[in-house]
Amino acid sequence: MSHVLLLNGPNLGTLGTRQPEIYGTTTLAEIEETVAGEISARGWKLVSEQRNGEGELIDLLQEHGDALGAIVNPGALMIAGWGLRDALADYAPPWIEVHLSNVWAREGFRHMSVTAPLSAGVVMGMGALGYRLAAGALTRLVTAS
Ligand code: DQA
């Protein structure tokens, strides 16, 4: 079955309880369910993975090069994850970067993403809803190509 990859980086496995004033109270499991529902109308399956380590995220991208597309929240690796950036540069399917928080409204060190310029687009500041919006956008990108 054709699949979409949902990849979440460091510290995103604790969503729901992690700094809820910034990231909200929705858990990663709930986000996964929503994204899976969004793409299921097309008959696509969701493969969702979360890792804290950059190397493991790179391994997953290389394993899922056959995905229709991907939704990626690199977490803090957006700031200086050069290895992840290189893996994304070599990742052929279309992918969308998601940030729950509006990183531009936060500390200066979060204002630069080394990964975002490689993405098809970025959704940020919309909380958990951002993943659903990204799934809808990715569906349109994949079906238009
Ligand atoms: C984040 C923003 C990053 O700056 C931060 O390090 C995260 C979460 C977000 O989704 O808003 O871990 O990617």
Keywords:
145 residues, alpha/beta, EC 4.2.1.10, 3-dehydroquinate dehydratase activity
Structure explained in plain terms:
The chain has 145 residues and is α/β, with parallel strands linked by helices. The protein is 38% helix and 18% strand. It has one domain: Dehydroquinase, class II (Rossmann fold, 3-Layer(aba) Sandwich), CATH 3.40.50. Helix 2 runs parallel beside helix 6 and helix 3 (54-63) runs parallel beside helix 5 (82-89). The protein has helices at residues 20-23, 28-40, 54-63, 77-80, 82-89, 129-144; strands at 3-8, 45-50, 69-73, 95-99, 121-124. The protein has a 5-stranded parallel beta sheet, with helices on both faces. The structure holds 1,3,4-trihydroxy-5-OXO-cyclohexanecarboxylic acid. 1,3,4-trihydroxy-5-OXO-cyclohexanecarboxylic acid binds at residues 11, 73, 75-76, 78, 99-101, 103, 110. Belongs to the type-II 3-dehydroquinase family. It is an enzyme of class 4 (lyase). Catalyzes a trans-dehydration via an enolate intermediate.
How far apart, in Å, are the first and last alpha carbons? 18 Å
Name of the CATH class: Alpha Beta
Largest sheet: 5 strands, parallel
Neighbour order of strands in the largest sheet: 2-1-3-4-5
Total strand segments: 5
H/E element string? EHHEHEHHEEH
Number of DSSP helical runs: 6
Helix content: 25-40%
Shape: globular
Count of domain modules = 1
CATH superfamily: Dehydroquinase, class II
Compute the average pLDDT: 97
Low-confidence stretches: none
EC number: 4.2.1.10
Site (Transition state stabilizer): 18
Catalytic activity: 3-dehydroquinate = 3-dehydroshikimate + H2O
Organism: Streptomyces cathayae
